[in-house]
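notes to self, project folder thing:

trying the whole complex as one job this time. last attempt i did each chain seperately and stitching them together was a nightmare. two parts in total, labels are on each line so i dont mix them up again. if this works i'll redo the older ones the same way
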Amino acid sequence: MASFPLSAKEEIVERFLDAAVRGDLPQLRMLLTHTPSLINQTGYSGWTALMLAARNGHYNVVEALLSHGCDKLPVNSSLQTAYDIAKFWGHSHISNLLAQTDNSCSGVLPELYFSRETLDRQSDKRTDKAWLEAQQSDPNTVYLLFSNVNPMVSRCEEDKSSEVLDKLCRFRYDEVKDLIQKPKTKLIFLGVEKKKPSSSCSQVQEGSWEPPAWFAVGTDEDATELLKRCRENNCFFPESPNRNLLKFSEEEAGIVAHARSVLVWHDRYSFCSTCGSGTSLEEGGHKRRCLNSECRSLKGVHNTCYPRVDPVVIMLVVHPDRNQCLLGRKKSFPVGMFSCLAGFIEPGEAIEDAVRREVEEESGVKVGLVRYICSQPWPMPSNLMIGCLAIATSTNIKVDQNEIEEARWFTRQQIAESLHRGANPALMLPPSQTIAHQLIRYWICKNANL
Amino acid sequence: MASFPLSAKEEIVERFLDAAVRGDLPQLRMLLTHTPSLINQTGYSGWTALMLAARNGHYNVVEALLSHGCDKLPVNSSLQTAYDIAKFWGHSHISNLLAQTDNSCSGVLPELYFSRETLDRQSDKRTDKAWLEAQQSDPNTVYLLFSNVNPMVSRCEEDKSSEVLDKLCRFRYDEVKDLIQKPKTKLIFLGVEKKKPSSSCSQVQEGSWEPPAWFAVGTDEDATELLKRCRENNCFFPESPNRNLLKFSEEEAGIVAHARSVLVWHDRYSFCSTCGSGTSLEEGGHKRRCLNSECRSLKGVHNTCYPRVDPVVIMLVVHPDRNQCLLGRKKSFPVGMFSCLAGFIEPGEAIEDAVRREVEEESGVKVGLVRYICSQPWPMPSNLMIGCLAIATSTNIKVDQNEIEEARWFTRQQIAESLHRGANPALMLPPSQTIAHQLIRYWICKNANL
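result (full assembly):
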C-alpha cells in the first residue's frame, strides 16, 4: 500500500496489522513472540491490531490479543474504540467479549506506572538478620545507588522506537561494600527477584538456585564521586524527580517507587517524633527504632516506627450531562496543561467523602456518586493515589485560587482529540505514566460517543 | 396477630410492617416521619418492611423505603434478601429496582460507622486566626473534652430499644476557657454544624444565624478533676477504645473519628521528625511547625507537618467456588471470633497488590481479581480502612503464626447463620460497626443462594 520504502520497523508493524486484518493467528502469534511491543502499535488512521480484528470479525484474534494484555482504550482517528467498531459492524460476539472483561479494572486500564511488583518483597525476611547479612555479601546481590533520594541511572537512546529510556545502574557487593559500612548510609532490602532462570542456563543446577536479593543504598556522599564508581556511560542522578523519574521501564519504575518512598521517609523522619531522640534503622530499612529506652514509642501500638504512606484522592469529575469532564490547572503546570483535581485524605475521612470535599473546596462543584477505579503508588514523596470517577450534581465553577489557577469543563470531543492527536495549545493532558491520564482515558473509552 | 399484649414499641413496629404489607404509603410515611428508626426493624421471622413490600408487589413502597435509606442487606430466617423475595414471587419491576441501585456502594451498604461527616470541616478557615479566635469565645461554640486521646462521654440507657448509647459531653466556652489557655492543651477546630436551624426558631433572624463551630480539647489534666466539670450524669472516659468507641450515634462517631485521629497524631508526633526540635500547633490544630528556624522541614514539599493517615487493606477472600470465604483469627480475638484479613499498605504499593501480598503472607492463599467495595476511617490510631473483595486462585491454607492464629474457609451457610442468628461458639463475626462485618454482609447479600 505504501508508495515509499518502509523502514524495518514500519515493515514489521505493517505485517502484524495485516495478520490482524486477515485473521492469521499463527503469523500474529509468531510476530508477537519475537516483538512483544507490537501489541499496541497503530497503523493508518490510528487503527490497532485489535481494532482491525474487531472490524473483520476475527474472534480468535481478538481473544489472543486480549490474552497478551493488549490495551483496549485507544481510539482511532474517528474516536472509535475496538468495542465501538465491533458493535458498529454487528460482530456482537466480539463486542461482548470486549465489554465482558471491562468489569475488572485490570481489563480496562493498562498496568499503572510505578505499580509493577518486579521483586518479591519477602517482608518476613526483614527481621532475619543472619539471612540479610548473608545476602548482602552474596556476589549475585544487586545494589542500586541513591544520592539525595534519587537513583543513579544511565540513559540509553533507543534507536528503534526513538523513546528515551533511563536504566537503573546496578552494582555488586565489592563495588559498594565501603559505602554500606558507613554509619550514615541507609540500606534498604527491597526483596528478591521473582523470575526463575530459564532452563537454558545449564550451569545452574535445579534447586540450588537462589533468586538474587536487591538492596537500595541511600547516601549523601558527593554525587560526582559516586558517579565515578559506575562502569556504564551517560550516568547521572535525576534532579527533577517529577519529570525524570517517568522514564524507566515498567519493571524498574516499580522498584524505584518502593525504594524512593522508603528513602524519603528516612530522610524526613530520622528523629523520634514522640521524644525527639535519635533513631536507628531496623528490619532491612523498613523500621526506625527510638534510641531512648524510656520513650513511649517503644511500648504499645502506634505508627511512629514505620514508613509513612499518604493516601491521596484523585478524581475525574463528570458533568451531569455525562459528556463533559472537569479539569483544573495549577500555576506550576506547563502552559495549556489541565489535569484531574486531587488532594490528601484527612484524618477521619472515607475515600468518597474526601473526593466530595476536595472537589467542592477546589472548584465549588458538588459531587454525588463516587466510584473507585484504580490506584497508583507515587514516590514523590510517598503517596498512594486513589483514582475515582465522580458524578457532579452542580456545574457552576468557583475556583479556590490558593489551590488551583483555573478549572473548566471540557467536552468529550476536546479530550479525545487531545488524547489522540497529542498536545495542542488549548489543552495538554498529563503524561501517560500518571493516574490522571489513565482516568481520563478510562472515561473516554467507557463511554465512546459514536 | 399477637396473642399477648404488645409493648408500645412492638405496637408501632407492627403498624409499620402492616402498612408495608398492605402497600399503605401515607401511613408508612407518617410513621417514618415520627420514628425514623423504624426503617430497618424486623418482625416475624426477621422480615423487614422492605421484604414485605417486595413480597406483596408494592413498587411505590419499595421505592419510598429505598429513598429513606433503608438497608437492603438483611436476610430473613430463610436467608432471603428483599431482592430474592421479589425475584421469587415474580415482581421483576421490584427486583430490577433493588438490583439497579446495587451499582453504587452507597446503595448496597449502610453508611459505615465513623464515616458520617456531621460537620463541615471548613479547612480554609484553619489559617484564619482572627476568625478562629472569634469562634473560640462565641457562646454557641461547642467543645468536646479528650483526656489521653479519649473523649468524655455520658452513658444513656435507651429504654425503648434497650441499646446502650454513649453521648459526647458538650461544653461551652466559659466552662473550658481556663483549660484551653494552658500551653500543653491541644485545641482542634473540627468544623461548623451543617444543618440550618428550622424556621420554627423564630428568635433567630434570617441571614444572621451563624452555624456553631466545634472544637476538640486534648488535655492530660487529671481525669477525675476533668469529670467534675460536667453537669451530666454517668460521665467517664472510655479506657478500651476498640470496644468503647463503638457506642456512639452515627453523627457523633464521625466527629470522634476526626478528633481522635488528629489528637493521636499530636500525642505521637510532638517533636520534629527531621531535626528532633520541639514543634508548635498551627492551622486550628491541623499542622505542627518546627521551632528550629534552620530546619529543612520549613522548606520545600514534604509531609512532616501534617497529620498522618495510614492506609490499610482489609479484604474478604472468596473461594474459587464462590461459595466459601476465608476468615482468620488473631490470638487477641474473643473465643470463636473470625474476621477479614487485613494489613498496612507498604510504600510503593498499589491497593490491589497490597491485598494480594497480605493474603499470601498471612494465609498462603493466592489471590487474582481484587475489587474495591468501600472505605472506613478507623481512629485507632488513624487508619483508612480500604475494603475489598478478592477472588482466590488457590485454596491451601498455610498460616503465618506471627500474624494470625488460624485461618479457615467458611461456607456461605455458616456465615449467613452467624449473621442472622447471632454468635454461636463456632463462629462469631466482628460487630456491625466494622468494615469487616459490612464486607461479609455485602458478599452474603450480593450472591444470595436460594
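what i see at first glance: Confidence is low (pLDDT under 50) at residues 102-107 of chain A.
need to look closer tmrw
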